[in-house]
Design goal:
6-stranded antiparallel beta sheet; mainly beta; Jelly Rolls; globular
Length: 111
């Protein structure tokens, strides 16, 4: 579980290192903070090494404007194993000053 807080005017991206290489099947994310804007459009990148410029990109995904957890399934034919995950938040709902991401869970199968 992570809490990432940033101003809505900045481009937001971050990298997560997973415990082991996974084929990612589903992401769950949500913003539970009051008086903040929720993520709207985002994309997911997967790589087996970092640093790199070679990300396998999935998306775009669109999150609804609500204070709930939202699940997003990656393509079912995804056979890419990766240890690093890059999330790029491209836009937000609303016009609040801060745009946090309260929770992010990654589900998948290990090698």
């Amino acid at each position: 579980m992570y809490l990432i807080v940033c101003r809505c005017t900045t481009n937001v991206w971050f990298i997560l290192e997973l415990c082991e290489p996974l084929t990612i099947e589903r992401l769950t994310l949500g913003n539970m903070e009051l008086f903040s804007s929720n993520p709207h459009e985002f994309e997911v990148g997967v790589s087996d090494r970092y640093p790199t410029r070679d990300w396998i990109v999935f998306g775009p995904y669109f999150a609804p404007d609500s204070r709930n957890l939202h699940s997003f399934h990656l393509p079912p034919n995804n056979s890419t194993f990766g240890k690093y995950l890059r999330i790029v938040v491209k836009s937000h709902h609303g016009n609040e000053h801060y745009c946090p991401l309260s929770l992010l869970k990654v589900y998948g199968k290990s090698e």
